[in-house]
Specification:
Elements: H1 5-13, E1 25-28, E2 43-46, H2 63-75, H3 81-96, H4 103-109, H5 115-128, E3 134-137, H6 149-173, E4 182-183, E5 189-190, E6 202-203, E7 210-211, H7 240-251, H8 257-260
Parallel strand pairs: 1-2, 1-3
Antiparallel strand pairs: 4-7, 5-6
Helix pairs in contact: 5-6
């Protein structure tokens, strides 16, 4: 597909005539991520939380940065798709460039560098209420644990735990705790059997985590560690589209089949 699933969500959200702001979805952490690619230009990607300062907010006495940012805006005045996309991206940057990430407050809440800074920026963007409905952030740890899984994985989980805990406390202090749901997702799972390097190789099924308001407890059925497929891999019990579709349909009010295709049975998350 030429679009990513979050991009398709943003396209559908853009049909809402009450929507405001230059974008409906934002990706922070890797630049132009394919998950955010949309058909109508209603999304923005950025490589990290501090990237906006390169394209917006130049000080008046900074001649080089001011000239560069004026040139960018001159290039974004045409009617071709690239110019229109640049215009939307720069409009977003102008809107939120002053949403600084307060390092003292971030330390108090327990945010860690990397993922924590992206989540902190996400909280600031959601607080500003500039029309962003979906924020995609990436973890920065090495989850490809082909070796040393038994000691790497607990450290990775500690990073997730600390930063999600800080994020939810941050949202609570901002009065947003009942308005934001977090969904984790992984590119792939791991094998059930350990390899010769005390690691786990690429596998099929994986456990996802939901946090925030919504249905409590375990959703779906945990995969069996003894009933494996022909490759000795875990057998997924819930399609990924059903999980993601649950967030799309239950939380955002967008029909899952319009994002993932017909026949999707979305999980009920609220």
């Amino acid at each position: 597909s030429a679009t990513g699933w979050i991009g398709r969500v943003a396209d559908l959200l853009a049909r809402d005539t009450s929507a405001t702001g230059p974008a409906a979805a934002l990706s922070v952490g890797s630049g132009a991520h394919p998950i955010i690619a949309s058909a109508t230009g209603s999304t923005v990607s950025m490589p990290h939380a501090d990237a906006l300062w390169a394209v917006a907010g130049a000080a008046a006495d900074d001649e080089f940065a001011s000239s560069y940012q004026r040139a960018l805006r001159a290039l974004a005045t045409g009617s071709d798709p690239i110019a229109l996309a640049m215009h939307d991206g720069l409009a977003f940057a102008d809107t939120v460039v002053d949403l600084s990430v307060d390092d003292d407050s971030a330390d108090r809440l327990g945010y860690d560098w990397g993922l924590g800074r992206s989540l902190r920026f996400a909280a600031a963007v959601l607080t500003a209420d500039v029309g962003i409905r979906v924020v995609h952030v990436q973890t920065h740890g090495d989850y490809d644990t082909h070796e040393g899984h038994s000691w790497k994985y607990p450290e990775l989980m500690r990073e997730i735990d600390a930063n999600l805990g800080a994020f939810h406390q941050d949202l609570d202090e901002r009065g947003l705790s009942e308005r934001v749901m977090v969904m984790t997702a992984s590119e792939f799972g791991r094998t059930a059997r350990e390899n010769g390097s005390s690691g786990l190789d690429h596998g099929t099924a994986a456990t996802m985590l939901l946090s925030g308001p919504g249905v409590e407890g375990v959703l779906g059925e945990a995969p069996s560690l003894t009933r494996l497929d022909d490759n000795d891999d875990l057998i997924a019990t819930v399609p990924l589209e059903s999980y993601l579709g649950g967030g799309v349909e239950s939380w955002l009010g967008v029909p899952a089949d319009e994002v993932f295709g017909p026949g999707i049975e979305a999980l009920r998350l609220v």
